Amino acid sequence: NTLIERILRLQRQLIQRNEKIDFLEEHNGQLIGEMKKKSKLLQYYILKEETGALATESMDKNKAYISKRGGGIMSSLYNSSSTDDTMTLERSLEINNKLHAILEDTLLKNMTLKVCFGKISIFNSNSLFFKLNE
Q: What mean pLDDT comes out for the span 72-77?
């Protein structure tokens, strides 16, 4: 008799835990959906605010003015032809290598931030799971 009661009690506990797991999985799915919506919204605002990547018309006019004036390394870049006597192949390669190093550093930082963001979102999901599980 006590064995049957114990089996029934364990079955009830199993049913309760399964219901709780189902609830938590559904809730987790909802939270992930909300997080995806918010990350899309953040990406939209970040892209909207990131004006450094987009050149305005006044910047283009300034570049044209500099290239017509014929001054310096940047003028050579805007004209696509050398207007500066100091711009040699070696100097061009040196500038290219420095820009390449800056690009690699920026990409590495972006990847690191992406990994950190992923870890934070997983941590937040897990901490919520454990709070609900208590």
A: 63
| Token pair recorded at residue 34 | 């909300």
Contact 83, 76 (CB under 8 A): yes
Rg (CA), the chain: 30
Six-digit token string for 23? 């609830």
In this predicted model, what pLDDT tens digit does every residue of 7-24 receive, in sequence order? 999 999 999 999 999 999
Burial of 15 (0-12, 13-18, 19+ CB in 10 A): exposed
Q: Which of 31, 15, 14, 21 is nearest to 121 (CA)?
A: 31
Do 76 and 91 meet the contact criterion of CB atoms below 8 Å apart?
Answer: no
